[in-house]
Amino acid sequence: MKKNLIWILALILIIPFINADSTFFDNPDDFFIMEDFPSSGGSGSGGGGSGSARISECSQDSECPDGQYCLENKCHSVECLDDSSCNIEEGEVCWDYKCKKLFDIEILEFESPVKTGNFFNFKYFIKAVAEIKGDVEINFWIQKNNSIITSGKDTIYFESYEEKTKIKELFLPKNIASGTYEFNIEITYKTYTAQAHRTIWIDVDEEGIAKIYFVPPLSNLIMLGLIVLVIILLAIITIFYLKNLKNKTKKKSKRRK
Fold first, then answer.
1. 16 preceded by a cis bond (ω within 30 of 0)
2. What pLDDT does 23 receive?
3. Are 201 and 179 in contact, with CB atoms under 8 Å apart?
4. Where are the domains of the chain?
5. Does domain 103-219 have CATH number 2.60.40.10?
6. Which residues contact 32 (CB under 8 A, 6 or more apart)?
7. Is the pTM of this model over 0.90?
């Protein structure tokens, strides 16, 4: 009797769930999406959500105080406004309101000897010392008394802080005479321009064979002259010292006799 009563009560409890609509899927092809909704911090129109707006100090230079410029929506102090505020002798220019040196360049060597009226090779080194990305135009020429004797051009793609060593050809005119010349290299990147130069000596013989030498800067020549002068003075002092020592030795020998 008790068992039958239990079964009847269980059936009464199950029947409402059997007749009720499904809470999830009546159709096996149905699906649902669970979505997180932001907790509301108060009532208001237009929906909401949590988050903070990015504060922008500026969108252009005119919105910053005097002596500052706008970069990435923030005002920064100006280091320079033009090249005159930078160390031009060291190759610095005013770039993005900061004094920067964009490139290092050095002429390494020349092919020598070479036959006049032919091309000769020279090697140079160039390094980007700033954040750049793009084509760099390189012009090179030999001149004498502001008159260009021969010239050439190169275009190289550079990434930031990249360095390259290049070998290029330059034509040596047949009628070139022996003498001192200036070898120049000019780098152009966007609005930036810088130059490097070396003084060279070209010695041409009767058969048209030219030898190319680097001429040291005047400061090096002065230093070399001072070194030679010191060596000469030391040699003179040494000679006088040895001569006096010899004379003293002779005098002592005579006294003993």
1. no
2. 45
3. yes
4. 58-101, 103-219
5. yes
6. 24, 25
7. no
